[in-house]
Write the structure tokens for this entry.
Amino acid sequence: MTTPAHHFEDLGQQREAAALGMWVFLVTEILFFGGLFAAFAFYRSTHYDAFARAANLLDWRVGAGNTAVLITSSLMMALAVRAARLGRRRDLQLFLAATSLLGALFVAVKFWEYAHKAAEHLVPGFDFAVEGPWAQETRLFLGFYFVMTGVHALHMVIGICVLVTLWEMARRGVFSPERHALVENAGLYWHFVDIVWIFLFPMLYLMGAH
Amino acid sequence: MTTPHVRKGTPPKVYVSVYAVLLALTGLTVAAARFDLGRFNLAIALAIAGTKALAVIVYFMHARSAGRLIWLFAGAGFFWLAILITLSLYDPLTRGWLPPPEW
């Protein structure tokens, strides 16, 4: 029987405190990405046509495929948290591995996209080669694209490192139905990063599709 | 305020159903973007993305079974996000509403 730390009434309260702490961190993350979304919304509303045109430089099929990969990884993460709650160690390891492998696939596709953009001279500041009347707005749009998806990809890489660590801890039998706050909180983080992409995909890839 | 010591897991069926809805909505947002609906394109894309985000928060992040304190904190985050974006867009969205003052 696991007892809570002395300043908690019971395990339920201790568990809620752990989730609450994670949510406080996620609120700072909401506002961190929110600043980027607000800036993007500002420039998109003032350069409406140019941004729609620039959005067509991105391949929406790759973005949609990656969205499916990330949503699948979120399903695997939800099942991993379920396995931890039920104390199924083998399932927990399996679903943690699946989540991190799908996350790694997402990041790999993202960098493949970046490599293509670099080959087409579409990276602002690095041999950028778009000319014509829309050049400045295109540079602005791609700047947002690289910063927003880059910061998102960094969150993915951090998440994958966390998941690999959890996998190793699960292998050593650290987690039990009473004690697995790390898995719960890693799940909250992973789903949050998924939500950021759910907004990034239509904002960046689909705005010029029509 | 307190929750039971050992939680029962949500049935996997629920997670798989939410997953199917998320994939379907991704397809819907791609399909909707192919029609030129003017400014409604953005409204539809945001409505679909918002629905997907809510499904992830309620089911995958277990907000459904979370205490009111967690709802309050999460809600505060999105409330401040709404202020951030709304006030940022006051200027560009209201340009041209009034003629410039005569000198």
Chain A has six helices and no strands. The domain at 12-205 of chain A is CATH 1.20.120.80 (Four Helix Bundle (Hemerythrin (Met), subunit A)). The radius of gyration of chain A is 20 Å. Chain A has one domain: 12-205.
